[in-house]
Amino acid sequence: MEKETNSKNFIERIIDEDLAAGTYTKVVTRFPPEPNGYLHIGHAKSILLNYGLAQEYHGDFHLRFDDTNPMKENNEFVESIVKDVEWLGAKYVGGVRFASNYFDQMYEIAIKYIKKGVAYVDDLSAEEIHAYRGTLTEPGKESPYRNRSVEENLDLFERMKNGEFEDGSKTLRAKIDMASPNINMRDPILYRVARMTHHNTGDKWCIYPMYDFAHPIEDAIEGVTHSICTLEFEDHRPLYNWVVEQAEFPNPPKQIEFAKMYLTNVITGKRYIKRLVDQGIVDGWDDPRLVTIAALRRRGFTPESIRNFMEAAGVSKSNSSVDYAMLEHFVRDDLKPKAPRLMAVLDPIKLVIDNYPEGQVEYLDAPLNMENPELGNKKVPFSREVWIERDDFMEEPPKKYRRFFVGNEVRLMNAYFVKCTGFEKDEDGKVTVVHGTYDPETKSGTGFTGRKVKGTIHWVDCGHAVPATVRLYENLVDEEKGVYNEDGSVNLNPNSLTILNPCYVEETIKNYTNGDRFQFVRSGYYNLDPKDSKDDALVFNRIVSLKSSFKLPKK
């Protein structure tokens, strides 16, 4: 169903106008990452926005790497980004594209610029170029090499390409306006000499195009109609337009800027994440405490939840922050009807049911998800000894405590009523075993309508329990202090990771595999860590807790 006009965002309204005017006949969008790091949650907004627009207007969506700076780029980042885009469900046409595939065309366009007299080879150093550039209040100064002849510029540029000059000794610059109020238009650099091995083109080139020159040309070559980027590129738009106009593309793309996605109290800057990785503070770019897309995937977030979150967050021209709890809300909302509900004991203490027959095991019926009967049922083993949570027993309970204490009766979930009769302690005074008796007439699912109990606790059968390690996460950032210190370092939360071991999970877990997601009853949503979990050493990540104080605003 197409959106009503009054519900469309400003980008959609621009596209509508362009199509109505015949400026473009088919919408083509793209996601153009630089392969110099892993993508984060902010990039997910750009991916889904561009892909969503292509879908809405029955157009094409491209995935293209802006790989013009081989010093910071490598294939690891390329592969991770492709995986992220595909995981989010963004289907790109024409295969994976690279700016470097167009280097020959870019070189020919640079030649065209020189012949038109709008580009020249400059001998100024980087420091001199910066000094000549001027300020926001003062115009720049023209390079003494600005008025070289076309013939001299063509010769020097070819020699740059042939490797005759030292790195950084010469640049190709656009000849625009050194007095422009927009500093980006003050003869920007188009090419620099740099002997670097490129991940895609190897050692073919020793000159590389600059991003502001290459990017609009890539868009134009691919027939992109709407170049959608974030607000920091707004001042670059006149240069974007100049590049494609001087290259004489017949139907150039239109650049449109939107506000970035900012989440409260999270780290998204690539250089900060890289520093955390390099210093070993986190377990790689996919550490579940980060908000890289790889980290969210590893932690157990679903692509559906991220898509729903982005749709709710919307698109605007004004920068704003979104509460991280809103993202968690959409994860819970997505997992609640689809995640199998298993019993897991994270801080175990043994319960011995003294009057249950020794050596007997029975299998009890239990639903996999009470809110979604389509998931079916499971069989849960039950015997004389089970694990329960340590905080489900208290030696001296406060008022209104409804779980296990001597003399109190509770229901073991999907099983029987059990009455606490006593407990054992070790030499340090720590309770090690709880004792109880069960009532065989109270079996769950048999229609028992006798006495009532106020507490229900979960459990895992000792003889069939699967041992596991469970990781609990808090925000990587100390939220009270903010994300960054004045010196640029990160305010880290020392309690961002808690590792629990041993924990015990019901044997139903054997039916699942790494990456699968579950609800551990009364605890939260978890997944089997796809990186560290092994058949004989299960590792779970807590995705989110069961409840949150976050509420979506009413429409």
Please outline what is shown here.
With 555 residues, this protein is α/β, with parallel strands linked by helices.
Order of strands, main sheet, comes to 12-25-26-27-23-24-13
CATH architecture of the domain at 5-258: 3-Layer(aba) Sandwich
CATH topology of the domain at 5-258: Rossmann fold
Query: How much strand content do the residues show?
Result: 15-25%
Output the structural class: alpha/beta
Indicate the CATH class of the domain at 5-258.
Alpha Beta
Organism: Absicoccus porci
Protein name: Glutamine--tRNA ligase
Domain tRNA synthetases class I (E and Q) anti-codon binding: 456-529
GO cellular component, one term: cytosol
What does this structure look like?
Among the domains are: 5-258, Rossmann fold (3-Layer(aba) Sandwich); 348-452, Ribosomal Protein L25, Chain P. A hairpin with a 5-residue loop joins strand 19 and strand 20 (431-439). Helix 4 runs antiparallel to helix 6 (150-161) and helix 7 (211-222) crosses helix 8 (237-246). 36% of the residues are buried. It has 555 residues and is of the alpha/beta class. The chain is built from twelve helices and 27 strands. The strands form seven sheets. It has a seven-stranded mixed β-sheet. A seven-stranded mixed β-sheet has the order 21-18-19-20-14-17-22, with no helix packed on it. It has helices at 10-21, 41-56, 75-87, 103-116, 126-132, 150-161, 211-222, 237-246, 270-278, 293-299, 303-313, 324-335; strands at 28-31, 60-65, 97-98, 119-122, 171-174, 189-193, 207-209, 226-230, 254-258, 262-263, 321-322, 341-342, 344-345, 348-353, 362-367, 377-382, 385-389, 409-412, 417-425, 431-439, 456-457, 460-461, 466-473, 497-505, 517-520, 524-528, 538-545. It comes from Absicoccus porci. GO terms for molecular function: ATP binding; glutamine-tRNA ligase activity.
